[in-house]
Each structure stands twice: as structure tokens, then as C-alpha cells.
Write a structure and sequence with these properties.
The mean pLDDT is 92. The protein is mainly alpha-helical and 116 residues long. It is built from four helices and two strands; from the N terminus they run E-E-H-H-H-H.
């Protein structure tokens, strides 16, 4: 078992905890950061347990990959049922339609993966 060292911060001794996350690890993107923030704000005990056992960042990376895959699948499904208007003819309507579909898919992903 490794020896734990401490540092004085004012009148307190705080443990020197360093995560062994490899420097070339995949960075957290939107969905990974959202999951991390959700756990920190709403599941504090679970968040601290995951953080101290070094499972938090791998967990967030798994969630972000699953969220991106799910978002891609949902977008394809929504596009097949609701084809957008011609982009060359009416670019603004195309952008609004695609934005609406993306928002719908993101809300589903967030409720299924991020905030559960």
C-alpha cells in the first residue's frame, strides 16, 4: 500500500492525491463534462467515490462515447422521418429544421444517459 503524504494548508493537513490519468487520454467533451457536473452536483458521494478510486474520468469518457453514438443514431432516425427542406433553395429553413432535430436528439440523449 503506498504511503500517503500530507501538506499543510493553513491549519489543515490535506492529503497529496494525484490521479494517475494518462496524459494522452481522450479529453472530456460536452457530454463527458455534463455527466461529471451532474454527478458532482446531484450524486456527491458517488462522485467522490468514483474520483478517489480513479473511475470517474473513464466513466465520463464511456458516457461521452455512448452519448455521441446515440446522438448520431437518433439524428439519422429523425432525418429519415422528417426530411429537411432543400438547403440550396431555403438555407434558413434547412438550418432551423436541423437545429430543431438536433435539439430533440440532444434532449433524448441527456435524459437517457447524462442525467440518469
Amino acid at each position: 500500500m503506498p504511503e500517503i503524504t500530507y501538506t499543510y494548508v493553513g491549519d489543515y493537513l490535506l492529503p497529496n492525491i494525484i490521479l494517475s490519468d494518462p496524459p494522452n487520454a481522450e479529453p472530456l467533451t460536452k457530454y463527458g463534462m455534463m455527466r461529471k457536473h451532474y454527478l458532482k452536483e446531484h450524486c456527491a458521494t458517488f462522485y467522490v467515490q468514483m474520483l478517489l478510486s480513479e473511475r470517474l474520468y473513464p466513466h465520463c469518457r464511456i458516457i461521452q462515447r455512448q452519448a455521441q453514438e446515440r446522438l448520431d443514431i437518433l439524428m439519422n432516425h429523425l432525418l429519415s422521418g422528417n426530411p429537411p427542406p432543400d438547403k440550396a433553395v431555403n438555407g434558413l429553413a434547412w438550418a432551423a429544421h436541423m437545429g430543431m432535430l438536433r435539439q430533440t436528439a440532444e434532449e433524448i440523449v441527456q435524459s437517457e444517459l447524462i442525467y440518469s
